[in-house]
Amino acid sequence: WLRAGFHRVLARDGSVIELSPEMKLPKSALDEEGRVALLVGRHVLRPEDPELLTTLTTAFDLGDGALSVRRHGTDDVKRFHRGLVCNGCSRTFLDPVPALFSFNSPRGACETCQGFGRVAGIDESRVIPDPGKSLRERPIAPFNSPAYESAYTEMEPALVKHRVRRSVPWAELSAEERDVVWNGRGAWYGVKGLFEWLEKKRYKVHVRVLLARYRGYTTCPSCNGARLRPEALAVRLRDETMATLATKTLVELRDFLARGLDPRDEARGGALARDLVKRLDTLVAIGLPYLSLGRPLRTLSGGEAQRIQLGSAIGNALTGTLYVLDEPTVGLHAEDTERLLGVLERLAAQGNAVVAVEHDTAVIRRAAHVVDLGPHAGRRGGEVVFEGTPFDLEGRDTATGRALLAETAEAARPDLPEALVAESEVVFAAHRFAGKAVTIVGARAHNLKNVTVRIPLGKLVAVAGVSGSGKSSLVVDVLAAGTLRALGKPLGTADAAGEHTRIDGLAAISDLVLVDQSPLGRSARSNPATFTKAWDDVRALFARTPEARSLGLTPGSFSFNAVGGRCETCEGNGFVAIDMQFLSDVTVVCESCDGKRFGPAVLSVRLRGRNVSEVLALTIEEALSVFGDVKALVGKLSPLESAGLAYLTLGQPTSTLSGGEAQRLKIASFLGGAKPKPGGGHTLFVFDEPTTGLAPEDVEVLVSVFRRLLASGHSILTVEHHLGFLRKADHVIELGPSGGPAGGHVVFAGTPAELMTQRTSPTGRALRSAAGGRTSLQSADSWPKVSGATS
């Protein structure tokens, strides 16, 4: 300290001790914790003292942000801290910068779970897969192996001592009873103790395999799922932490902020709060009031994710902007669509241009200008078949014009509800032979309110309801994941099945197939021909030609995945990627094969006048014509034509297909016998919004394909909003009555005709409006005009 220029320390009694190089500090210079009070400066306090600020800064730096001030000649000592420090316990808090409240930042994320809110651990739902079993029925899966079955015997004394009921299902035991089994008592080590012991044996391969079987994610013990560090959770806004605000629904958060801030906070954050309220208003207006800020993006549907992007753009209140929306009504209930249309019309009224790719006739009817493409799909499309107002489009000989005209004609039928009843009775009569059902008991995942739902088998069953009512939670998270777990199959992208008591009736089905809108494959080599296994037959046909035999070519030579026949420059892709260093890669047509994907020898072989590259360029329709006499090929390709995919080419990469096309290709693969196969038994097919991206005529095709699956002896369950599809269903289950916390109840279960009579049902109201309450389109001259806007 002497070399640093400091010559004095302060004793506990306030006296000054002069330092010298050879001296030993007396005990009076040390406080109770052994620290020395270095005397940095002495001042007479007056505003004009120029050295005071320098002394304070030096003292704070030397004292790691803390200093003491003693009034000369007294025992009056005050301690000061730089930053946020408790004067009582000296606990230090971080500065409340924005990053402190972000679980994506190292500054704010919980150190235990790294901001994920979960840590890897033992998943109780995997350890006890059937909570409907009692302890007498041995529900603990790892104890049922020969190596650890003695644990049941070792557990018995603890069960007796703590009066744990052994004849009651696990799900009905009290929390204390389950804790005895799970965490142990006394000599009983518990389920948790067994896995802690196994963790010490991880060097053994079979132990690692066993642990992986029961591994899952549990709530972080440090932050209890809040994802933030304690310093961030210590900051409150009107008694709410960042974590509790993130769990509020958007409408609850908007109302919370709309009540205003405290006077001391208004000056610092009032403008931010008011801007946030405007953004939340927009998200609520486009049908997302039930979401929360903390909802993981992976749990959102495609439509919800798109509307969040839309809300972000709209919330900026731009003008003179071109908004391009790709099917904004995806995943929207009819009532939510009306709210979305109101937002889009306000955007246009503000001087913006809104262009939407859309199939929903409700949106088409409200448009100021319609461009109709067609007349068909694929190569037979791509032309502008109509351009003008919706009023002029109705009745035109286009797919959209016919759909609009059909809706208007239905609105004029007074006997439509009665006709629907008769139609549904015929459909039910055709499927009543099944007489079996799968019943979900006590579904509690996300916002589901402990509901019990009966799903009849052998029928086309649709689960409907407003956005956020719990449809995907019930069908995908609970039924699909729970059934796959019961069948011993992987759950796919799900971490675990949604919380529920049990699923009854699974003995009636042999398999469950979940068909969602996920891409079929990212590889450019995957295409309809390979997906349906039709390419195997084509390769065999090429290999049997005289030219192929003379060249020594085998079926493998006609595969763009195998070395020998493919172009090795592009490795069978038809293009090569050029690395642009810091920019995205650029793909160009392969110069060696000119995009034909195969080598010269293979391309020289012709089958029915076409080489292998030209066969890949055939549409499904053309391929059926060329190979109409090849029974195996027709059996694999005709289901694609039945599914409305005749316009696809055999070689079109599946990564370029829309969500609706991908779903129909999966359906066609089941009809054609390609993998994945149903397995030969009664399969329950689960579809997540299969009408996504489909025009009204395509929906009719989809329903006919579903009827073929039903005729094959299978069952179909869909999550769906499309009103035309719902009317064709055999059985409708509606969840609601609203989204988010106000949803999660079963509000209706029955036929579409019965649903139309329900006055309190949002879906019933929408069906009645679509069937009998819609008026024909007005002429463009009678539309309301927006000031400053043209159409």
Give short descriptive properties of this protein.
791 residues; six-stranded mixed β-sheet; three-stranded antiparallel β-sheet; globular; disordered C terminus
Write the layout of secondary structure elements.
Blueprint: E1 8-10, E2 16-18, E3 37-38, H1 52-62, E4 66-70, E5 77-81, E6 84-85, E7 92-93, E8 118-122, H2 124-127, H3 150-161, H4 175-183, H5 190-199, H6 205-213, E9 215-219, H7 230-233, H8 242-247, H9 250-258, H10 263-285, H11 302-314, E10 322-326, H12 334-349, E11 353-357, H13 361-366, E12 370-374, E13 383-388, H14 390-393, H15 399-411, H16 416-431, E14 437-443, E15 451-456, E16 460-465, H17 471-486, E17 502-504, E18 511-515, H18 528-531, H19 534-543, H20 546-550, E19 575-578, E20 586-589, H21 600-603, H22 612-616, H23 620-626, H24 631-642, H25 659-672, E21 683-688, H26 696-711, E22 715-719, H27 723-728, E23 731-736, E24 745-750, H28 752-755, H29 762-773
Helix pairs in contact: 4-5, 9-10, 10-11, 23-24, 24-25, 25-26
